[in-house]
Amino acid sequence: MRTKLVVGNWKMNSGIEETKNFFENLIENSSLQNINHLMQVCICPPFTSLNTASQLLQNSTIALGAQDVSVNENGAFTGEVSISMLKELKCQFIIVGHSERRMYFKETDSLINKKAIKILEHKLTPIICVGETLEQREADETNEVIKEQINGVIENMSNEDLLKIVIAYEPVWAIGTGKNATSKQAEEVHLFIRKLLTIKSNINVSESISILYGGSVKPENAKELSEQENIDGFLVGGASLKVNSFISIIQSF
Ligand code: 13P
Questions:
Q1: Residue 98 C-alpha to ligand 1 middle, in angstroms?
Q2: pTM, to two decimals
Q3: How far is the CA of 153 from the centre of ligand 1 (A)?
């Protein structure tokens, strides 16, 4: 059985004060005690809020994650943050290849693949993002784009490596737009991704990999999306910034 995972990606939101308020409210919230015990919850604040979050999560089952990492181990890379720095802060997950990094910072599948392999070498979990643009979907290129991205980001990974990754399908047209993929559209792509993973490994491996959906996930649409066979969790942007909406998304599983 695949682990259900709900991850909050705060993007460039929430400084130290907001982070404190969020976690104090989240940890105190009694509904969090009743969530499915097979479920993992993770929050990825911006780098500058990680230390605060890490301290507040010390005795909690909620995991901490980062939104990106350098492909380099250390040295003269101005503005970059290394994996060992994130490990010191007790991060367990690291998002790589988010479409905003692909779009604004020109990250390629090859760089994302190198980052993911580094993360695995350090025994943390990469959450590797893929997704098509609106233009690509309308030109009927979704499968082609997803295939190229998946094959690129998992290159040189052994079956053992693949068992330790998480994939997030985030259609670019659904991110921050309020317009989510329908459960049918999302399930189709998730199933397609699982088939690609089977071709690269085998059915036992591909059936064990958690595939998250991201793109305008809200309390109102989470339940239906969560009921799809190949949707194993969510990568949530805007709705993860508020305790109540984040908890109600978690409770959809
Ligand atoms: P929204 O949930 O705000 O659409 O963002 C999705 C996302 O990009 C999560 O990584």
A1: 10
A2: 0.97
A3: 20
